[in-house]
Amino acid sequence: MSKILVIGDSCTDLFQYGRCERLSPEAPVPIFLTTHLTTSGGMAINVLENVRSLGVDCKLITNDLRPSKTRYVEEQSNQMVIRVDTNDTIEPIEWEALDGINFDEYDAVIISDYNKGYLYEEHIQFISKRHDLVFLDSKKQLGDWIEDVDFIKINKKEFLNNWKDPSKFKGDLIVTLGKDGADLNKLKRFSVEHNHDVRDLSGAGDTFIASLVVKYIETKDIKESIKFANKCSAWVVTQKGVVAVNPKKI
After folding, report:
1. Which of 53, 124, 168, 176 is the most buried (most CB within 10 A)?
2. At what angle do helices 204-219 and 222-236 cross, to 10 degrees?
3. How is the chain split into domains, by residue range?
């Protein structure tokens, strides 16, 4: 049975749903009347949940003390009014914890780096040198420290802003493009097969990396894996909040 290791920053995602029916008399802002709250694990935890929902065993190494992201959402339109983040900085992983990992137990490693402080560049270098199938999803400015990573997945904005010289990277680069699908190595585009009504983009990148790796372990075909990841992430954006992909729905 396949097994995946996820390492990275985690948070708590809260969605406070409510109604905005009038403006405040004190300032030109809407009054938000709360109706219900949903809570789930986000970032690396969401990657873990997506891997597990696709039927693959998975272990997570992450921070215990977690920041929170609270989104205030108007429930009828599903429009976000504001997002409030707390405790945004995470303490770094201890080197002893990394040294204690038996990387041979896992078929692949996913580094889910939201650049909140849990993983330094040196940590990612260490991980990448100790396993022969490492997938990186990072918000950091990318440099020579990613040379031993096998696959990098980033979105278009991150690619344009966070990478000065991608030509030195020897692995495979996947750039996600939202409704337009994903590019592989800037040479081949994989479009989303069907148009979907987007309700919430939260967590779609986590679903993409999780489903990409699950499919790659099964097929060893990165093109088929990108197609599958497109399907999975296209489905989750039709749902409210942060959810794991349901394989019966794609």
Report:
1. 176
2. 150
3. 3-236
The pLDDT assigned to 240 comes to: 87
Helix (H, G, I), strand (E, B) or coil at 60: strand
> Which residue stretches of 173-243 are H helix?
204-219, 222-236
pLDDT of 88 reads 86
d(CA 84, CA 245): 25
Q: One-letter amino acid identity for 99?
A: D
- Number of helices (H), then strands (E), belonging to the chain: the values are 6, 12
CB 56, CB 2: distance < 8 Å: yes
d(CA 138, CA 184): 17
Tell me which residue has tokens 């790796």: 213
Q: What is the pTM of this model?
A: 0.94
Which listed CATH number (3.40.50.300, 3.40.50.2000, 3.40.1190.20, 2.60.40.10) goes with 3-236?
3.40.1190.20
Whole-angstrom distance, CA of residue 49 vs CA of residue 54: 9
Q: Is the pLDDT of residue 216 over 80?
A: yes
Q: What is the mean pLDDT of residues 44-58?
A: 97
Select from 30, 50, 20 the least CA-distant residue to 246: 50
Buried b (16+ CB within 10 A) or exposed e, 177-199: bbeebbbbeeeeebebeeeeeee
Q: Which helix (H) or strand (E) holds 109?
A: strand 108-113
pLDDT score recorded for residue 195: 66
Backbone angles phi, psi at 2, to 5 degrees: -70, 155
